[in-house]
Design a protein that fits this description.
The chain has a domain at about 70-145. It has three helices and five strands. The protein has helices at about 50-65, 75-105, 110-140; strands at about 1-5, 10, 15-20, 35-45, 45. Helix 2 (about 75-105) packs antiparallel against helix 3 (about 110-140). The relative contact order is 0.09. Keywords: Membrane, Transmembrane, Transmembrane helix.
Length: about 150
């Protein structure tokens, strides 16, 4: 395993060539449905130690969030309240993408599970984010000082 600067670890690439039956004729009327084509899969695995990812991505956000010596500016208060919801939603979407990638796409069953997880997870994430943001905005409007 090669460890380069910036903390990324590159594992040896792999390449596979196999036949794959596509369930379409790609618009070609002279070809029957389900033709077999060659497919090359190239895998480039890049990993990053979890400590590096936390220190470089999460720690600065926590430091900004915890910083109490910053002056209070009233017109940024609502936006500052919405930012953590956006961060949590972004992290949830990334986790969903990682999960879907780990499901694999080798056959129709795995592909169907990936599509189902994508639709449900994406819809749920968007719905929760919109409801939470709407609730924060509604509460801000209701308790707004005149």
């Amino acid at each position: 395993m090669l460890d380069l600067d910036r903390g990324f670890q590159y594992k040896p690439p792999t390449m596979q060539s196999n036949d794959y039956i596509h369930l379409t004729n790609f618009g070609e009327t002279r070809v029957a449905q389900g033709s077999t084509y060659s497919r090359v899969s190239i895998e480039l695995r890049v990993t990053r130690p979890i400590i590096n990812a936390i220190v470089k991505n999460v720690l600065p956000i926590l430091l900004i969030t915890v910083g109490e010596d910053l002056p209070t500016v009233e017109y940024l208060t609502l936006l500052d309240t919405l930012y953590p919801y956006a961060y949590v939603d972004g992290i949830a979407v990334m986790a969903l993408l990682i999960y879907i990638t780990k499901l694999g796409h080798e056959d129709a069953t795995h592909m169907a599970a990936s599509v189902k997880a994508d639709r449900w997870g994406g819809g749920l994430s968007l719905g929760v984010y919109l409801m939470a943001s709407g609730l924060v905005i509604a509460l801000a409007l209701l308790v707004r000082p005149d």
